[in-house]
Structures are given as structure tokens and as C-alpha cells.
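Hi R.,

Here's the chain you asked about this morning:
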Amino acid sequence: MPCGQQESGAAPARYVVGVDVGSTVVKCHVYDRAAAVRGSSCRKVNPRRAGGQRRAAPSPRRRAERRGLPFPGRERRGSAGEGSLRRRLPREPSPGAGACGRGRTCPLSAECWAALTCGSPGPSPVRGPGRRRVAQAGRGSRLGVGSVHGRSPGLAFPRAQASSEPGRVESLYPRPGWVELDPEVLWSQFVGVIKEAVQAAGLHMSQIAGLGISTQRGTFITWHKRTGKPFHNFISWQDLRSAELVNSWNKSLLLKVIHVIFTVLHFLTGNDRYVAPSFLTFSTQQTSMKLSWVFKNIHEAEEAAKKNNCCFGTVDTWLLYRLTKGSVYATDYSNASATGVFEPFMKCWNPTLCNLLSIPMSIYPPVKDTSFNFGSADSEIFGVPIPIMAVVADQQSAMFGECCFHPGDVKLTMGTGCFWNVNTGEHLFASQRGLYPLIGWKIGEEVVYLTEGCMSDIGTAIKWAQDINLFTNVDETEEMARSIVDSQGVCFVPGFQVSVNDPYLCASFMGLKPSTTRNHLVRAILESVAFRNKLLYDIIVKKVRIPLQTIRADGGVSNNSFVMQMTSDLIKKKIEKPANADMSSLGAAFLAGLASGFWTDKEQLKKLRRIEAVFEPQKDLEEYKPAMDTWLQAMKRSLHW
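And here is the predicted structure, written out as C-alpha cells:
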């Protein structure tokens, strides 16, 4: 029987659904009151970047430009590659440079990059292969959003396009370094994964007490307020189109002046809200720069914003809008604070930053509590209206799922990237170099703040090693690493995605010898994860003025005992690993369950936690010092490539 239909006498609503829309998969779990999984479904996202994993290596032309030397002729674009992160994910050919993601050449009109100087656009040459011109995605472009048809009076939505493979969300890569998602395919997979999970549990949709949605952060879209038509595809948090703009801003005189002004203000007032602007640095992962790019390069979005007809939304906002057929336009505090455009001290969208980057303030959605009744999904979607009781950003959701409710609790997520989150309670720590403040969640009057440090290329590097056949299955890596005493001096420097501190950091193996084997290479990759954990942990200890308590790990890489044990040895702390590694889904379900009355309070949730393993320090830190010193030296030699 279809999951949306209900037999007479069916059981009342006594299950909650947690959905996690991540960078690599869309996962859904159905939980009972004991937080046991009753049914699950998972659909893979297949991210592949045109031009390679992050960006093409510097060409001879690029190197000549840096030295101010002439270089005749044209450089080649980088070769296509794949950057997805999932186990046993089959590889597929990537669309060639300049392709629209459907295997045909994009007929996009193009115009020069505009670099911001004192908040005003100005021409700036764009360096690097495939980045001389910017496609104007709003005019006559084919972005895979399909044609428009009406679904309800006064509101139209684009038609979904079929993915090239069932159960997969296809990413689009119109240019090297650009990463996009088709909103209609994502929507189709989101709805499909919920239906599959409920059906796998043998339940009816009417038995679902509430839906909680966890989403990747920083991925956004803009659309027309009246028609619902997107102006472009989702621009992923991994997208690098703003790299040159970021570099231009970070070197600008205006930013230096801002640093001086706010340093003086902080000195005179002692107010922590002036600390972050005093060393403000932009990065490609921030939404602000890519959003500025949209309004300078997509004419339709710019014109709609002038008439207050442009809507901005991260993934959660778009899904809410679609689930309610356009009747709910909102986000929550956790997702808003992760955009970099939201002022966590004042709990509002930042008008100063938006004016600086020429972003209209009218585009932003209202911000609601994290655990909150957002309304119900339209009955046409699932057969019955399902209450949407929580939306939350993925890392904050994992924090909640790990029951890190007290100040000093630490959550370590190792997935596509690596995220260290510290619960700072009611105290909001100002941004420090390498760390930044977030709103963890807001439930009624309670607002919990976090401090976060992150690293890219954790799971991505492991998946890349699998793609080049260093191993067949990720489960082999632990045994391979333990089969040798050390890496024989081989160091791996991850750098597939642009570093926040150095956009020209290159990925590399160093210290290779004729005796180097696959085992040494694999061990070097795993060691690099633990070494980077150590560096970030030391920054947290130094900057966060709260005693650190329990450290709880989750994410796919947390299943590797070699990495977990080495991290525990390096930081000299105990690390707990839960029985359920899908903490983002569980956290969304917990938040939805609290809002719906499915669970009573957080004390009840803590009793539902299940620990699978505990890693305690076994080796002295001095045993790792020679290897880590060598790795740090390798890191320095990979900078500014």
C-alpha cells in the first residue's frame, strides 16, 4: 500500500523523521521513541568538478603572469575529474570544461569579472585556467531548472529534470571550480528519500508526528518572489567562483582600514562584537562573496531585487518553500548564522556587510527558532500533511544529536570536511583567527552558541585515494596503515579545495622513495587527518576560554580506528564514538521531536545515547613529534603554489 494512504484503524502518529541533505548524500531515518531507526533511505550526491578536484594546477601562463613575464599562446584548461565523497561510489566521466553539465556546450553570454573596490564594481582580470570570463547565468542561459508550470494560483515552480542515474543528485559544473546543484533534482530526491524511508519502516505517512530537516550550510539559491522561478542553480559551499574576488578584497586597502577602525573601537569600548571585524578575512566558503557575485553577474536577480521581488534561501529555506507550496518563507538561526551574512551578536542580517558588498537587504528570509512549528507539508506531496517541526544546519544538528548540551562539550565531525564545535553556552565568543562563532540552536528563550573551527579535504582526500586505486574499500585503510611501523618519511598535504588562508595551497605527496608502497601513501593520508586535528584542537584550547569536557566524534571518517586513536594520542583526550554515526539526521529528529511533544526534554534525549567505542590516549606525544615536524615542513613547502 502506498505510504501516503492509511488503512482504517492505523496506529496514531508515534514516529519522527530526520532528513539530512548533505554534500554527498541525502539521508532519511525514521525513529521511534527509543531513538531506534525503524526505516532508512539514502541517495548519493555525485559531486564532480570541471577542471579537477578543486582548481587546475597553475599553467605556464599563470606562472609567467605571477612573475610579470609575457607568455604567448593560450593555456589549456584543466582536465575533468571527480570530487565526490562516498564509499564504493562508481566513477563517471565529468563534463568537459565549458560544458553545462548535460554534455553539451553552454551558449552562455559572458562578461568580465568585477572586483569590488570600496564597495563599487570595477574591472579586474581573472587569473587561472577557465576563469577569464564570467558566464552571465541570468540571460539566455541554460541552467537546468527546466520550464515553468503553475502548481497553484499565482505561484509556479520549474519542472524537475531526471537525473542521469536513479537515486543520484547530479551536480553541475559549468566552469572549472564552479559547483552547482539542480534545485529540481534535489527536490525530487528529497521527497523520494522520505517516502522510501517511511515505506521501508512499514509505516504510513499519517503515523509521522513531525519532520526535522538538517541541511548543508552555505549552499544557496535566489528566486523570483511571485513566480517561484530560480535565477540560477544552487551555488554550493564548495564553489570557487569567488576566489579571485576574495583574493582582491583580502588585499584591498579598504579592508585594512576596516581592521584599524574596529581595532581602535574594541580597544576603546572593550566590546567583543568589534573583535571579528578587526581581522575580517573573506573566504570562498562564505556565502557573502558568492551572493555579491550573483547580483553583479545575473541581471534578472539584480532587477528583481530592485523591485523587492528577489528571495534568497539556503537549502532549508528552499525546501520549506517547496514543501508548503510557497506559503512559508523562513530559515532558522543556525542556518542563518552559518552564512557569514548574519550578525550573531545582534541576531539579525548584517546591514553593514551587505552595504559593503552591494547586497540588497530585502532578499533575506525571516529567521525563526530551530525547534519550531514551521507549518505542514502540502498534502499533495506525501498524501497527508506532515508537520515540519525543525530545520537546522548540519553541524549544529550533529551537535544536538550528540547531546552536547553543556558548555565545554565538544563535537568532532569528520566527513567531507572536518568540523570541531565547542558549546560555549550563553556566551558568544568573538571570531578568532581560525575560529568563528555560530548560533547552535534557539528553542524558545534558550539560545546556545558554538565556536567552530573547520578543515576541508578530509573525506575528499580519502575518496581521491580510492579513485586512483590506492585501495579498493575504505575499510582496508586502517589495516594498511597498521601494517607498517611508520610512513617512512612520506607526507601528504591535502589541498583539493581552496584553503581559507591560502587559495594557492597545493595537494602533494612529499618524501617519496623507491621503497615507498601503497601502504605508506595510505598511512600518510590518514596521519594528515590526525595532524590537522591536533593543530585545530590546539587553537581551540588557546582561544576558547572554557574548560573542554567530553569530545564526541561522528561522520564517516570516525569509523577509522587508526585516525581516531592517533587523534586521541595527539590531543591527550578521551574521544567517544556513538553507535549511530548519522548524527545530523538524529539531531534534526530530536529537535522535531521536542517541538511536537514526541520527547519531553533534553534529559530524556541524553538517556537515549548509545556509545559504540571510546578511544583513550595510549602513546606519548613525543613519539609523534618527528613525524609531525616533517609534516609541518611539507605543509610550508606547499603554500603559495
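One quick note: Residues 518-543 form the longest helix (26 residues).

Cheers,
M.
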